[in-house]
């Protein structure tokens, strides 16, 4: 199955990070972007999720960002 699409999860708390993880594990998206207003938190969580990719067996890229959400180029937010 070909992976495509980009989804943003707003909020890197418990629910947001779990949602990003589950979306990545389904391995149907090209990219999952995790955003939050707390500097460094989404980047750190994205790093953890990306390092688990070979172990969990998914290829979806997880990106963490603290910057504002522009809403362009996303399938869903």
Quickly describe the structure.
By secondary structure, this protein is of the alpha/beta class. It has three helices and three strands; from the N terminus they run E-H-E-H-H-E.
Topology at a glance:
Layout: E1 6-10, H1 14-26, E2 31-35, H2 41-51, H3 53-56, E3 61-65
Parallel strand pairs: 1-2, 2-3
Strand order in the largest sheet: 1-2-3
The radius of gyration computed from the alpha-carbon positions, rounded to a whole number of angstroms, is 11 Å
Q: Say what oligomer this is.
A: single chain
* Fold-level CATH name: Rossmann fold
* Parts with pLDDT < 50 across at least 5 consecutive residues: none
Q: Report the sheet with the most strands, covering strand number, pairing sense and barrel closure.
A: 3 strands, parallel
Please give the domain count: 1
Structural class: alpha/beta
What is the name of the CATH superfamily? NAD(P)-binding Rossmann-like Domain
Q: Please, what is the average pLDDT?
A: 90
The share of residues in helices is: 25-40%
**What is the count of helical runs?**
3
Q: How many angstroms does the end-to-end distance come to?
A: 23 Å
User: Any idea of the CATH class?
Assistant: Alpha Beta
Order of helices and strands: EHEHHE
- Report the β-strand fraction as a percent range: 15-25%
